Amino acid sequence: MAVIKIIATGGTIANTGHGLIGIDEVLRDIPQAKAMAEFEVFEATRVRSGAIRLSHWLDVARAANAAAEDSRIDGIIVTHGTFTTEETAFFLHLCVRTEKPIVIVASQRKHDEVGNDGDRNMLDAIRLVLSPDARGKGVLVTLHEEIHSAREVVKTNQRPGGFLSLRGGILGNIEDDQVSFYATPTRRHTFKSEFDIRAIDVLPRVDVIAAYVGGDDAAAQACVAAGAKGLVISGYAYNGRPSADQLPGIEKIAGSGIPVVYSNRGGQGRIPVDWNDPFIQGDSLIPHKARILLMLGLTKTDDPKELQRMFNEY
């Protein structure tokens, strides 16, 4: 029988009216799971996902990497809260170097609520991680019978069906008779990534600055003073630029050697690259995912052209 490593972090999928419970307790309430695979559970943490910290990312990624290197393990499931599912998923997508399926699963309703969606989502995650077609597709996120790529998925609201994949849409579906893929990620990830969790001990500080009417550079300057090694601008669609009054100060920050990435606050469309621009164009990544790629990029280099190359490839 297949062996699946479950890395538990807490979240609504393991939450009840009496507080967070262990994922073992969740599995006991899903008897069908026992017939599908054997499970080894590692509890990385037990928190609501708004309390996930960078140290948790490192712990989860290291646990996933260890499971990937274990020949007994066929696939990896990470249980997670929905607030930060898309961020943890993209971090793992970039730095856990394996072709083994890694699936992040969450739920919009507590385990003991009427209409609980977590139990079905968990069964779908098991089926997905056991699908031969899931291999080599990077980190996948599943809720409500849908398969999302970690790069594109975003939570839009609190209801079932509230997760969407931007731009190209979902990768496929999990239905009663089979797991079906209709698309595959084409950007670099996991086993093709240059980032390796085994070589990362600490993540540099990167902050996100919002563009808005009437904004100035005070927030950007404060972040640099607090130790930011890079900035992401959640800028105007389409080009990701900040407001006119923010721009001069941010240009000075970029000129001082601190990389600044432009991202599209609208969440759709790619920012065209200008190799003569002092800023880095964040391709089609939404701001908080551009932040993750910049953090990992800064573990390698602070050269803007090399960082731009990364944003072009991932």
Could you characterize the architecture of this molecule?
With 314 residues, the chain is α/β, with parallel strands linked by helices. The protein folds into 2 domains: 190 residues, Rossmann fold; 110 residues, Rossmann fold (3-Layer(aba) Sandwich). α6 links the parallel β14 and β15. α2 crosses α3 and α3 packs parallel to α7. The longest helix is centred in the first third of the chain and has 16 residues. It is elongated and about 60 Å long. The two termini are 35 Å apart.
Report a brief summary of the structure:
The protein is an alpha/beta fold and 314 residues long. It has helices at residues 23-28, 54-69, 85-95, 118-130, 218-225, 247-255, 287-298, 304-313; strands at 3-10, 15-16, 19-20, 38-47, 75-79, 102-105, 139-143, 146-149, 153-155, 163-165, 172-174, 179-181, 206-210, 230-235, 260-264, 280-281.
